[in-house]
Amino acid sequence: ILDEADAMTNDAQNALRRIIEKFSENIRFCLICNYLGKIIPAIQSRCTRFRFGPLDSSQIMPRLEYVIEQEKIKVTEDGKKALIELSGGDMRKVLNVLQSAATAYNEVNEDTVYSCVGHPSKADISNIVNWLLNFDFCSANKMIHELQINKGLALIDITYEVHSY
């Protein structure tokens, strides 16, 4: 099993191609990648592709609760919801953010999850929309910029969330 196979150099992929050709009768390889276009055509042609879509919350929640229980992590309901929302259906991301938040904070809640990943919270977006609608441009821009600096937020994340609001 080769995870993150799309991170392999072309030379490494060509070497792997030769290994696959040489031992294809008695060995099977499983290549896992995020970007199929980064895998050379010679390997792609020797593989069967399986595409996995994002998981929904009903699939993520049982495993998340199992990990929380096994690791004895203090997580609030809004923390679980934030983990799932930010993951975009990626179980690895849920577990990585959970681990980071649990390491950095005594309790994992919505605020600590958003703070841990540097993503604007719903409250931040609500404030930004309020500023944009109720203040002149210069004042709103200044407040948004201060929020960016204080919380380490990326403008692209703010823009995306305001658009989705």
TrEMBL record:
Source superkingdom: Eukaryota
All residue ranges annotated as the Replication factor C C-terminal domain in the record: 120-165
UniProt-listed Pfam families: DNA_pol3_delta2 (PF13177), Rep_fac_C (PF08542)
GO MF annotations in UniProt: ATP binding; DNA binding; DNA clamp loader activity; DNA-directed DNA polymerase activity; ribonucleoside triphosphate phosphatase activity
Biological source species: Triatoma infestans
Gene3D superfamilies in the cross-refs: 1.10.8.60, 1.20.272.10, P-loop containing nucleotide triphosphate hydrolases
Annotated EC: 2.7.7.7, 3.6.1.15, 3.6.1.3
GO BP annotations, alphabetical order: DNA repair; DNA-templated DNA replication
Protein name (database record): Replication factor c subunit 5
Keywords linked to the UniProt accession: ATP-binding, DNA replication, Hydrolase, Nucleotide-binding, Nucleotidyltransferase, Nucleus, Transferase
The UniProt record lists the keyword Transferase: yes
A single Gene Ontology CC term: DNA replication factor C complex
SUPFAM superfamilies: P-loop containing nucleoside triphosphate hydrolases, post-AAA+ oligomerization domain-like
